[in-house]
Amino acid sequence: MGSFDGQGYTIADVTVDTTASYNGIFATIGAGGLVENLFVKNINISGPSVNGGICGSNDGIIRNCYTTGSITATSSKNGGIAGVQGAGSRIVNCYSEVDIDGQNLGGGLVGEMLTTAAIRNCLATGDVTGTIVYGGFVGRSVANVDSIFNSGWVNHAGNPAVALGEDTGGDQAITYEEATVNAFWAATHNLYDTGSPVWDFDTVPIWYADNDSLPSLLGQQ
To answer: How far apart are CA 179 and CA 152, in angstroms?
Structure first.
């Protein structure tokens, strides 16, 4: 248990090349732990499994964080923010551009999402490749219905055409969708600004956006 406030600062050009699992800026974030306001640019991880841009495994809260870089893994559970999102954990207001290349359970934001975990107000835009189960947003979710809310992934060449590689927990498509610029500005989309209070670009000083671009965290530009 503990907290780390990055205060909007950036950690850049991090390389991890190891035969051990559980890799990231933090190996694990324990229950009750908090990591927030941290930008990680150009993190490059090469490790067997449970790798993430912020942490290998998250049992606490990650919020207002942004990651770029790449993860190359020989096994499973790799994500742009966290490799594994444990029961009861939260990821809120996070953005990842990390490219994932791993055998199984790779996701643009999270590799594997466990029961009662939740993701809110997040985006993933990195390329995700694998050989078994992988998804543009989450590799596999066993979490409860509606555990992913107002979040999206960018479907482009090199990225899977599905957000969730495998869903055994009953998540419903209404809670997330392909993130296009139009999705944040047209009322027919689930990510619509005015219709979804957590995507409030006007009164919440977290995200920046205009109607010609995807949102980004303030300070990410």
So the answer is: 5
**CA 188 – CA 172 distance, rounded (Å):** 17
Q: pLDDT of 154-185, one tens digit each?
A: 666 666 657 778 877 655 433 455 556 555 55
Q: Cα separation of 46 and 15, whole Å? A: 8
For 183-207, what is each residue's pLDDT tens digit?
Answer: 555 555 555 444 444 555 655 567 7
Tokens standing for residue 130: 């694998």
Instruction: Give the torsion through C-alpha atoms of 151, 56, 38, 97, to 10 deg.
Output: -50
Which position has the token pair 């994932």? 100
| CA 148/CA 173 separation, integer angstroms | 9
The DSSP letter of residue 23 is B
Phi first, then psi, for residue 186 (nearest 5°) are -115, 130
87: its two tokens: 């029961």
Question: CB–CB of 147/118 below 8 Å?
Answer: yes
Can you give the residue ranges of every domain in the chain? Answer: 3-180
Fold of 3-180: Pectate Lyase C-like (2.160.20)
* DSSP code for 36: E
